[in-house]
Design a protein that fits this description.
Strand content of chain A: 15-25%
Order of helices and strands of chain A: HHEHHEHEHEHE
Radius of gyration of chain A: 20 Å
Oligomer: homodimer
Distance between the termini of chain A: 32 Å
Shape of chain A: globular
Structural class of chain A: alpha+beta
Largest sheet of chain A: 4 strands, antiparallel
Largest interface: A-B, 90 and 91 residues
Chain lengths: 215, 215
């Protein structure tokens, strides 16, 4: 198993995508402040602009704001206990759903989940720019989600997202106070990249121009 | 099948994520200009900063620059003919690969492809900011990719990406000249969004504050 790198904490605040990626994290503590409807709209506009295989756009989203106690309760009920504890304080919950077959052919779409992931990523970066944060969760029951939210066959519940402004970590259960504000470590680039074949690990930072070799 | 909306072409050039998403498209024509190593590094830094289920970071990338004729040829060989025609002129090809089981448990990672999609999306937006464009392709042979690139069991070839600066569409085969520079239509938001249950379509733009209803 590769060694993890702990990200450097920097005081810099670079502009653009790099800055957004540095600011982005998955909070456990949310402010009770509601998310403005116009900002919610911007999040989903970002999501739907993602590219997708055959332009299928296999992403769907079930959205629930806390004001809608019934809808919010349904999404909350699908979460595992550990997530329900903190996610109940988020102003918005969103379940992403993947349409797993192509509309044009009925054949399985190999990239349905991949493309829903792309849409979620665009949503997340748009959120970060607006001062909103997104905490995605695998910890929910997809079978229960299908039942409670009436999700039809051909669609699969993908990931749950809590969306909102960040809140005070004092409001968190003890176990989450530490983990809620730190970025989890990332694997070093040279364990993720290969050059032209899996047999040759690669790092673009080291001896780049001469490492191409062979021909 | 829902009606598609053709995106408005605007003269505006908004800053930030919205502007990046507006500029982003998947070109067929690439400039022969190589991609600077430092920019390549920035693309993969963006990719590896993506969130993932259990922080598994299931993304891997096999990268080939045209200068590496052998490696580049291997990636090119996995493409379907239709993609090979134009992708051979891209300065960089990248195959994204998904690690489909969790490292900590050996159990299937339901979100492996979703998370690789997120990493690809971060890479793509970072590229757009740097003036680079990414054209992702489903049209390649994953079995051939596994063989030619020595991808081990437990990993699945996900998507091929051509990366580079945009080029002159005059260099394209006739059939691609039109399609190469236009954004494909997107489904309207109200066909993608549901409020609290699949039974209730939702649009955040229309009558928002009063549409929550029920409670």
């Amino acid at each position: 198993m590769p060694v993890m790198q702990v990200e450097r904490q920097t005081d810099s605040n670079p502009a653009g995508v790099e800055g957004l990626l540095e600011r982005r994290y998955s909070p456990y503590a949310f402010s009770p402040r509601p998310v403005e409807p116009e900002k919610l709209r911007q999040l989903f506009e970002a999501a739907r602009s993602a590219p997708s295989s055959y332009n299928e756009q296999p992403w769907r989203f079930v959205v629930a704001r806390r004001e809608d106690a019934e809808g919010f309760g349904r999404l909350l009920d699908t979460l595992v206990d550990q997530n329900r504890k903190w996610a109940r304080n988020a102003p918005v919950l969103v379940l992403s759903v993947a349409k797993v077959d192509f509309t044009h052919s009925g054949q399985p779409n190999r990239h349905a989940w991949y493309d829903v992931g792309q849409a979620a990523a665009y949503l997340t970066l748009q959120a970060t720019e607006l001062g909103l944060y997104v905490h995605q969760m695998a910890g929910f029951d997809p079978v229960k989600a299908r039942q409670l939210l009436s999700i039809p066959e051909g669609y699969e519940p993908a990931a749950m997202m809590a969306v909102g402004y960040p809140g005070e970590t004092e409001s968190l259960p003890e176990a989450l106070r530490q983990s809620g504000s730190t970025r989890r470590p990332r694997k070093p680039l040279d364990t993720l990249l290969f050059e032209g074949t899996w047999a040759r690990p690669w790092s673009p930072a080291v001896g780049d121009s001469s490492s191409t070799g062979i021909q």
